[in-house]
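so my prof wants the structure for this chain in the C-alpha cells format not the other one, which i didnt know existed until like an hour ago. anyway here's the sequence
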Amino acid sequence: MNSLMKQLTRKKFPSETVTKDLTKCLTKWDLTLMGIGAIIGTGIFVLTGIAAATQAGPAVILSFVVAGIACTFAALAYAELASSVGGAGSAYGYSYAAFGEFIAWIIGWDLILEYAVSVEAVANGWSGYFKNMLTAIGFGLPESLTKGPLAQLSLDKLTDAQKALPENSCDFSFLNSCYHFTGDIINLPATAIILALMFMLIIGVKESARLNAAMVCVKLLTITIFIVVALFNIHPANWIPFMPFGWFTTNPDGSTAGIFAGASVVFFAYVGFDAVSTAIEEAKDPQRDAPFGILASLIFCTVIYIIVSGLLTLIVPYTELNVSSPVAHALQLIGVKWASGLVATGVIFGLTTVMLVLYYGLTRILLSMSGDGLLPKLFSTVDKKRHTPVKNTVICGIVMAIMAGVLPLGVLAELVNIGTLAAFVLVCGGVIVLRKTKPKMERPFKMPFGIVLPVLGILSCGALILFLPLVTQLRFVGWLAIGLVIYFMYSKKNSRLAA
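here's what i got, hopefully its the right format
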C-alpha cells in the first residue's frame, strides 16, 4: 500500500493505533477455513430442514441459490474493500471509509447485535445436541440444568385472543402471558461452551485458528458420510411437487412461504463469510488473503448447501424435516442409524466452529469501534503478552454466557438475518461511493462490470429484507434507535475524529 493510501487509512481509521499490537499470523487458508467454520453449521444442520418443511419444499435448493447469489454480490464488495480500504475490516470499517462516522456507528451497532445473538442462539442449539450425546452414553444432565428459567409458552397454552393476534405480536401486548418462569435453573451446556470458547480466544488467535481447522475437517467428514449414504437412498418421487409453495405466497395467517421467503430464512446460513473480513488486521497479506478467504469460503459452502439440501429432500419427504436436526433425523428415517449418530456428533463440532468464528468477529468489531472512540477504551485494550483483546473477550463471553443460559432466543435470532442484510447493503453501497469519491484508490481486487454488481447486491439484499416478518423489522428499528441514543450521548462526544 503506498504512502498516500496509508495516510487515507489512518485518517479514516483511528483504530489503527490499537490494532497494531495484533499478530499478523493468519494465512489465506486460515481465513478460508474460518469462513467455512462459520458458514457450515446451523444453516446446513438445522435451517435446511426447517426451510424445506415450512417454506419451500424440495425447491429449498433454489432458496439457497437465491440467497447465495445475493451473498455473492456482497462477497465481491467485501473482497474489493478488504483489498483496498483495509484498516479495521468488517462492514463497520468499510462504512467508515465510504460514509463517515455516523453511518459506521449504525452498522457497527447492528453488527454487535448480529454477532452476539448469533453466538447465543447457536449455543442453545449446541446445548440440545450435547445433552442428547450425554444421555446416549448414560450421563444425562438434570432437566433444570439444560433449560433457562424463562420460556415462551407454546401455542396450545395461549388464549384464543392471543392466538388471533398477528404472529409474535403477543411479545408486546401479552408479555406476561407469552413468557413464564419454568422453575429451571440455567442452560448449563450453552453457558459452558461460550466460556470455554472465551478461554480459547484469550490464549491466542493462531491457536484458535488451528482448533477451528481441526473441527472444520471433522464436520466436512460428517457431511461426506451423509452424501455417500444419501446417494444410495434417493427416491425421485419425493421431489413431486418440487415447488409446493411457489416462488412467494402469503398464508391465511399472515405468514409467508415460497422460494423467496425460504431464501430470507436460509440467509442466516451465509453469515460466516462476513466474519473473515474482521480478521484482516491479523492476516499476513490482507490485500491478497482476505479476498481469497471470502470468495473461496462462500463458493465452497454454497455448493455444499445445494448438494446437501437436494439430497436431503430426495431421501425423505420434505414434510418430515421440520425438526431441530433434519440431517440426522432423515438418516434415522431411512434406517441408517449408525450414520445418524456420526452426523449428530459432527453437528456438535460444526456448531462449535460457528460460535468460535462469530465470537472472534464480535471482539474485533468492538476493538475497532473502541479504537475510534465510539465505545469505552476498555474494549480496545490488547494484551501485550497474548496479543489478544483479553478484557474485551471476557466481557463479551460473560454477557453472552448469561444470556444463552437464561433467555429463550428464538425471537431474537430473527434479528440476525435483517442485521446481516443491512450490513451487506451498506458494503455494496460503500463500493459505489468510494469509486466516485476515491477513483484513483489502489484496488488490488476490483468487482467487474463497473457498479452493476454492487447495485444488484443492494437490490437483492434489500428485497430479502422485505420478505422478513414485519415484527422483525420493527425490532430491528428499535435496536437501532437505542444505538442512536448512545451515539449522541457518548460516542459522538468521545470520537477520536472529534478530538
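also thought this was worth mentioning. Residues 101-136 form the longest helix (36 residues).
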